[in-house]
From TrEMBL:
<keyword id="KW-0378">Hydrolase</keyword>
<dbReference type="InterPro" id="IPR001110">
    <property type="entry name" value="UPF0012_CS"/>
</dbReference>
<feature type="domain" description="CN hydrolase">
    <location>
        <begin position="1"/>
        <end position="239"/>
    </location>
</feature>
<comment type="similarity">
    <text>Belongs to the carbon-nitrogen hydrolase superfamily. NIT1/NIT2 family.</text>
</comment>
<dbReference type="InterPro" id="IPR003010">
    <property type="entry name" value="C-N_Hydrolase"/>
</dbReference>
<dbReference type="GO" id="GO:0016787">
    <property type="term" value="F:hydrolase activity"/>
</dbReference>
<protein>
    <submittedName>
        <fullName>Putative amidohydrolase</fullName>
    </submittedName>
</protein>
<dbReference type="Pfam" id="PF00795">
    <property type="entry name" value="CN_hydrolase"/>
</dbReference>
<dbReference type="InterPro" id="IPR036526">
    <property type="entry name" value="C-N_Hydrolase_sf"/>
</dbReference>
Length: 266
């Protein structure tokens, strides 16, 4: 399969409507890809806390409508990154959107782990509660977002839910870039799964973004990695490598903690 990760540059100087149009054009330029991925909160900015409330939108809002048409027009699965979702019955959420090649919104994921400790996202947004996967004809996608990458228990839960490709949109800052690269590889090795981690570039709300989007295979090998600036990272790989890796090196079979012990060990 072919995957294209769009490492979009996010800047305070660019109006949201113009960035939506630019993201739409970049997605449409990936015709021929099986899966296209955008970063976290690319429309408003992952650190633009002051803009979130006014810029929040429903699941059928302008970003979703635009992305649905783009997915349908190029005939590809599209992980459209995440939006600030306005829930009429609750808080705003950091919500990822996955569209089918037919343009249908087939899955959403509300980010579970909110960054900021006692400020920012941690207090401005609600926390998701559900482990979410998306079935495709080539593999099952496991959905996580940015700060989630630091919590291996989420990825183990995605593994148990059948995930083979972990898709992680992000707005990860440059000052912790080494953590980004290390954790992407660690999650791939732990779950014996592909990790497709798509970050933002640029600087918004005074926070320089790391870039360095990356695709990692189930052995922890980096198949492709972007630089610090806006670019599209395209890579071809075989999702069947997940099953081969798990069969050749069946470490997951020896898990004991957190799941019922095998019957023969009672």
């Amino acid at each position: 399969m072919r995957a294209s990760l769009i490492q979009l540059s996010v800047s305070d100087a660019e109006p949201v409507a113009e960035r939506r149009a630019r993201a739409d054009a970049l997605v449409r330029a990936q015709r021929g890809a099986d899966l296209v991925v955008l970063p976290e909160l690319w429309a408003l900015g992952g650190f633009a806390y002051d803009a979130w409330s006014a810029g929040a939108e429903p699941l059928d809002g302008p970003t979703a409508e635009l992305m649905a048409r783009a997915a349908k027009d190029i005939g590809a699965w599209l992980h459209a990154g995440s939006i600030v979702e306005r829930d009429p019955d609750g808080p705003v959420y950091n919500t990822s959107l996955v569209f089918s090649p037919g343009g249908d919104l087939v899955q959403t994921y509300r980010k579970i782990h909110r960054f900021g400790f006692d400020s920012g996202e941690a207090v401005a947004m609600g926390a998701g509660q559900e482990i979410v996967t998306a079935g495709t004809e080539f593999a099952t996608l496991g959905l996580a977002t940015c700060y989630d990458l630091r919590f291996p228990e989420l990825f183990r839960a995605l593994l148990d839910a059948g995930a083979e490709l972990m898709v992680v949109p992000a707005a990860w800052p440059a000052r912790r870039r080494e953590h980004w690269s290390l954790l992407a590889r660690a999650r791939a090795v732990e779950e014996q799964a592909f990790v497709l981690a798509c970050n933002t570039a640029g600087t918004h709300a005074g926070v320089e973004q790391a870039g360095y989007s990356v695709v990692v295979d189930p052995w922890g090998t980096v198949l492709a990695e972007a630089g610090p600036d806006e670019e599209v990272l395209t890579v071809e790989f075989d999702p069947a490598e997940v099953a081969r890796a798990r069969a050749e090196f069946p470490v997951l079979r020896d898990r004991l903690l957190g799941i019922p012990a095998p019957a023969q060990r009672r």
